[in-house]
Amino acid sequence: MAKPSHPNMTAEEFRKWGHAAVDWVADYLADVENNPVLAQVEPGDIRSRLPARAPQKGEDFAAILADLDSIVMPGVTHWQSPNFFAYFPANNSGPSIIGELISAGLGVQGMLWQTSPACTEIEIQVLDWLVEALDLPARFSSSGAGGGVIQDSASSAALCALLAARRRIQGESATVLPSDPRLVAYTSSQAHSSMEKAMMISGLGSAALRPIEVDENFSMRADRLARQIEEDRAAGLQPFFISATVGTTSSLAFDPVALIAEIAQRYGLWLHVDAAMAGTATICPEFRWLNDGIEHADSYCFNPHKWMLTNFDCDCFYVADRQDLISALSVTPEYLRNQASDAGVTDFRDWQIPLGRRFRALKLWFVLRHYGIEGIQSVIRNHIDLTKEMGKWVAGDNRFELLSEPTLNLLCFRLAASDEVNQELLNSLNASGELYLSHTVLDEKYYLRFCVGQGTTERVHVERAWQLILRFAGELTK
Ligand code: PLP
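^ thats the input. predicted complex w/ pyridoxal-5'-phosphate below
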């Protein structure tokens, strides 16, 4: 190797510090449950520990790594703690972290097939594997008109779906002319905020998104959807897009996708299905009912970076007809042209918003190969069983109200007391550092959300969480 003209890290130094870093991560993960789950710092605390300016001269790597413990760790909320029950999980695993490390090492930017054929082809194949493993409709596989691609997030998937839908209904004018103010889109009032954001970014405008009423289970009311579409058509508007949710963020409610698909077909609307967290459960045959109706969806996404042991970021986004997506997102300047593209290979730059892309398929490939489908099934089943058990404890204690029996891994419950008392309960639980829960508001009532999804969460952690909840609730209500 030529002598570097600048202070490069040598291969030997990289080996030394890389090993030290892997040791650090291994120790961190082995001990993560002994950290306060929610970072116990005030705004500005971490920044105040950093010098005002970047160092003029390079520093010793030992000092850089040492600052992980002194500067970074106090400001980390430990998402990988088995006592993390907040939001939806963003779990990781050894094989995923190793895949991420190697992806960084390769430093591949896989915008075109040619800029790293392995990046594109492993992604195509792994996403096809998942079509079969999750029993997704065959039309999402790359062997037909459709296909899958990894996006950074479900939010990007929603935006891409929206743009593809607009391209399909309006043809080329969708990409050339200002957005048509007659276009309207539909989702439930419980859908994730990323849908509204996609409307804002796309230029369609959030006012053109109709939040459809939900029923007592927080699922979209198909009759209200059909009625709203009729009203909009009568008003001279152009309904073109519906986003249904399989597992809403607030309470893991499921929209009636089969009924919604029928309406989408009746009026010729694009149907996107957002199964960001719940989609992973369909790896278990007993949860395949979650896929009911998606055989008619035009696009679908779920996040391995939530529940499939693949560290953030990794969203699998599928389309039934890739041409709509590519036509919506493809711009080809001369400097990107090459023979392989001209010959018709897949260039994933045309399936996403940015041009550049990381080799994210590597970590997903490693996870699937390390665990196998059976390994992932056992993790998912364990989480769901633990949630059900916790649900029984909550239901069996008349000081608490349970929103509903858990279907998957989320439990929403509250103390039978005021919202303020429940808020106080959550604050004191999280301030204890022993666990981390989040909250939502449903039917104007404040609920605590308890979601089981970390790779290392076991019965003992859930039992301890319940004991803590009982203790803090007891102190608040005595
Ligand atoms: N959709 C649903 C149903 C979600 O629960 C979430 C996040 O929790 C998202 C979309 C957004 O996910 P992302 O962070 O991947 O954009």
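The chain has a mean pLDDT of 96.
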